[in-house]
Structures are given as C-alpha cells and as structure tokens.
Amino acid sequence: MFKxxxxxxxxxxxxxxxxxxxxxxxxxxxxxxxxxxxxSLRAFPEMLLQQLQSNGVPGKDKSQWTGKxxxxxxxxxxxxxxxxxNFAQGDVRETGRRTDVxxxxxxxxxxxxxxxxxxxxxxxxxNNSIRYTRNGNFTLDGQGFLTTNEGLYVMDRNNQPIxxxxxxxxxxxxxxxxxxxxxxxxxxxxxxxxANSMMKEGNGLYRTDNELPLPSAFGNPAxxxxxxxxxxxxxxxxxTQTMTELLSxxxxxxxxxxxxxxxxxxxxxxxxxxxxxR
Length: 278
What we know:
- The structure is a single chain.
- By secondary structure, this protein is an alpha+beta fold.
- It folds into two domains: about 1-85 and about 240-275, no CATH class; about 90-235, no CATH class.
- Helices cover about 20% and strands about 35% of the residues.
- It has two helices and 19 strands.
- The strands form seven sheets. Strands 7, 8, 11, 15, 16 and 17 form a six-stranded antiparallel β-sheet that branches. A three-stranded antiparallel β-sheet has the order 12-13-14, with no helix packed on it.
- The radius of gyration is 28 Å and the shape is elongated.
- The relative contact order is 0.20.
- It is found in: Bacterial flagellum basal body.
- Keywords: Bacterial flagellum, Cell projection, Cilium, Flagellum.
C-alpha cells in the first residue's frame, strides 16, 4: 500500500516543480532576451517483483525453495530530471532607443554531438566575474559606461567596460561602437557550442558550468550573427503553449492528490476499524 502512496506523492512533487517553472516562464513573457525553461520528467528505475515458491515452511530449510515466480514490474515514481533553458531565437522588436541592442543568431555553433549552441553579450557582475546575457536592454550610467539595467558593465573584446561621451553613438552589425565617426570599442560577443551547459543565475544572467570563459564568436567562419541597434530580442516564451502545459500539470497534480487522499482514507480505515479489538 505504501509503495503506491509514495509513487503518487512523487508525482505531486514533480508536477509542483513543473508548475513553478511554467509560472516563472509566464512571469517573464515580456522580459527582453528571456529564455523559457523546459522540464524533463523521468521515472525512477522500475523494480521486478518475484515470488519465492516453497513446499515447506519459509525460512526453515532453504533447500525446499522450488523456484521463483515473476509477479511483474513496479514503478517507484517520477521526478524532474533536469530543467534546461530553450535558447531558440526570440522575436526582434524595434524600440528606437540607441542603448537597446538585439543579438540575432544567423548560423549558430554546433558541437560534435549535434547539439546547437548560441551567442551571448558579455557582462561583468559586482564581484568582477564574467557573466553572459541575451538581454540587450542596456543603458548609460552617470559616468557614461554602457551597462545593463542592473548596473553590470557591458564588456568589449578586451573584457573592459565601454565608456562613451554621450548618447549619440552607433553600433554596427558586428558590434563595433562608433562615436563621432571613430571606432570606440567592439561588443564582446561570446559563443557556446552547447547551450544546455549554461547555468542560469537570475536577472537574465548565465555562467558556464566550469566557470571558464566562453570563446569569442569573432574570427570563426563557421558561425554568423548580427547586432541590431535600436531593437530588442523579445522573450521566446509561447504564452498559449505555456498556459496549456500549466493546466495539464495542474490536472496531473490534482489526479495524484486524489490518489494520495484515497490511500489516506484506506490507512485510516485500516487503523481505526480493521485493527480495532472487539
């Protein structure tokens, strides 16, 4: 009885975690550059039940065991194996703001296993650690440095902050920042051959799983990207699909909940009625 109780409970926990993930996707549907998370659910290893057959009293003489009879497989529940971002390109929306920059994938890197990669802007956080983002909703701070809305410096190809004299600047398709007709810097566009290896840190930031810096996308003839100033890459969250998946997860949670309640009533009856002394 308890095996089924635990199986239904793991179903509730996995669907709760999936619902939390989908809710977060919905909340960030309008966040520039946000990449929707995807959950992979997997069953725990199944157990093969067998019945030992004996002609005598079990446990007294092991020589009396005549063989085994298969009862069948028992599933022990389900769990969320992993949550990975979906790095598909989001729609590009024109904003007209000079500090808004969209990073557009053209030919993305691919590793030996055929897994697609993606490109990132490079930023530096408050701990002087290099991080990566797809959110090009930049701004200028009081000293003229190009930063994210959270105040993180946008890096150039030398991993140095980009400082400008004013708001009258241009960024071409390869990320070169021009001011007064002169080249000031070039955005450091990094790439990864396996987007699934990137770890989310919140506020649209990513890091590598081994904390090593990503290689530059420049000088690689096998990949291609474009920078579009005055535009933003929108979130790639499909609101309709996410809402459908959220309702399905909620129904699955309710179904498992009813099973747990049925087991609870059965155990209550066994404890209070069947086991009662008369």
